[in-house]
Specification:
Helix content: under 10%
Shape: globular
Distance between the termini: 20 Å
Largest sheet: none
Number of helices: 1
Length: about 100
Amino acid sequence: TFGRAAGCIISAGNRKCMYVPPGFAHGFCVLSDVAEFHYKCTALYAPAHERGILWNDPALGIAWPVDQRAAILSEKDLGNPPLATAEINYTYARQ
């Protein structure tokens, strides 16, 4: 599944959720004026181990449901590299 994307619309109305295994990239796009987003994590947040990839990298082919020119992103997210040049240093191992 490396380099492939999947997505779904999550809302209070449809009560869906998504499991993202450790080491998988993930992101979200808020489609309303206000949203609350909750994470359940497998470990404490470790900023030194955080990595990112460009949210609209054409190689990923993510069909974001917004006008990409009007998207509001954090400075951190704006600086992420495309997948082809991102630091890949994660190996998934079952425990």
